[in-house]
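[Discussion] Sanity-checking designs against the backbone

I'm trying to build intuition for which residues belong where. Below is a structure token string of 360 positions. I'd appreciate it if someone posts a full sequence so I can compare it with mine line by line.
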């Protein structure tokens, strides 16, 4: 490292008019770099974060998938036109082998975030994608149970980049969970630096192999754990889960603002437990109120991706490790669709249309 100042010690530098105009110049150039699959510029896509200019040095962090390393060269190339810039320090945040990292988040617990993460993973898998699930809900990791796994031994393998956890594979989905690393029924009471270390190790030290998607099930809310995960992983979009209740909606609003502040694109909102379908007449009763998801979608300009009914099969499927999106009927040896599985399939199709629109 050369003898210039650290980029992190002098936030007041941002206020200097000269640096500010340099900042604008850099952002303008970075906006010329277009991500070819998403057909948008890397700044708008939230792929460039922590941009800092100190003296004549540019520092930035680039959040990319395994197929996007060419963007690094393009960035260096556009920034080389700056006569005042002595050097660009570009730090890459990526997860080896993983193309697209998506997060599933909620403002509060109990709204069906984990259920949604598991079912989206299952729906994407059914459509042929290679999918991994990272249960980063450090306060209540229950994805193993939702996929029918109890306590399992996690293998550690030695790779050229150090020791790595090997994810488990269940129903064609790769899974890693903090819940697999701790004793069952033991409360997870990690805080501060320990929590930060566990999370970063989790994000960096799993040998996923080749994945089209890694879905990260975030802890609910907007605390330390969430912020660490968002900063340390190349999340290219977040899906927010809410119920139609006003109280859940207020929390989602906070949650969305947190993602927008750090520049992570919000892909949309899923409203869970939207209505109950009457088994006799098929009529829909909005048990938890109605219109919440739509109202939020309009107010925050985030699309409403789907509305999932209350369905006892979702609950029992979660308890027995049989996600409704897979809905495999053993008696008939075929997949059985339901209104909920159709919503998950529709959202999976939309995700594929966005992120796998590739000429490989
Ligand atoms: P969160 O991750 O937000 O805390 P979970 O996904 O663990 O919430 O869901 C909480 C409980 O609600 C679980 O028992 C789950 O099976 C149940 N559940 C979630 N969504 C539905 C639904 N649409 N219909 C019926 N039960 C649901």
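Best answer:
Here's mine. Compare freely.
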């Amino acid at each position: 490292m050369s003898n210039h100042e650290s980029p992190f010690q002098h936030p007041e530098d941002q206020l200097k008019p000269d640096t500010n105009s340099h900042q604008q110049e850099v952002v303008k150039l970075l906006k010329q770099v277009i991500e070819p699959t998403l057909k948008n510029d890397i700044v708008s896509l939230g792929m460039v974060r922590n941009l800092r200019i100190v003296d004549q040095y540019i520092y930035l962090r680039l959040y990319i998938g395994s197929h996007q390393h060419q963007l690094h060269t393009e960035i260096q190339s556009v920034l080389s036109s700056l006569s005042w810039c002595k050097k660009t320090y570009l730090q890459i945040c990526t997860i080896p082998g993983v193309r697209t990292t998506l997060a599933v988040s909620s403002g509060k617990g109990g709204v069906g975030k984990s259920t949604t993460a598991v079912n989206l993973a299952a729906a994407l898998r059914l459509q042929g994608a290679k999918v991994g699930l990272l249960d980063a809900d450090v306060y209540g990791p229950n994805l193993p149970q939702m996929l029918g796994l109890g306590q399992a031994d996690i293998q550690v393998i030695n790779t050229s980049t150090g020791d790595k956890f090997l994810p488990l594979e269940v129903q064609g989905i790769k899974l890693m969970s903090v819940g697999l690393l701790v004793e069952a029924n033991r409360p997870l009471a990690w805080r501060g630096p320990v929590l930060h270390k566990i999370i970063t190790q989790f994000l960096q030290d799993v040998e996923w192999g080749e994945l089209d998607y890694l879905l990260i099930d975030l802890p609910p809310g907007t605390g330390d754990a969430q912020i660490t995960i968002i900063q340390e992983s190349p999340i290219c979009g977040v899906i927010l889960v809410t119920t139609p209740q006003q109280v859940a909606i207020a929390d989602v609003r906070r949650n969305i603002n947190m993602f927008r502040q750090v520049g992570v694109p919000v892909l949309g909102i899923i409203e869970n437990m939207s209505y109950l379908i009457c088994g006799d007449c098929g009529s829909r009763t909005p048990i938890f109120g109605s219109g919440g998801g739509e109202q939020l979608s309009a107010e925050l300009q985030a699309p409403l991706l789907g509305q999932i009914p209350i369905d006892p099969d979702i609950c029992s499927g979660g308890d027995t490790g049989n996600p409704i999106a897979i809905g495999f009927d053993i008696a008939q040896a075929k997949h059985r669709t339901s209104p909920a599985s159709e919503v998950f399939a529709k959202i999976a199709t939309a995700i594929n249309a966005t992120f796998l629109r590739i000429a490989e």
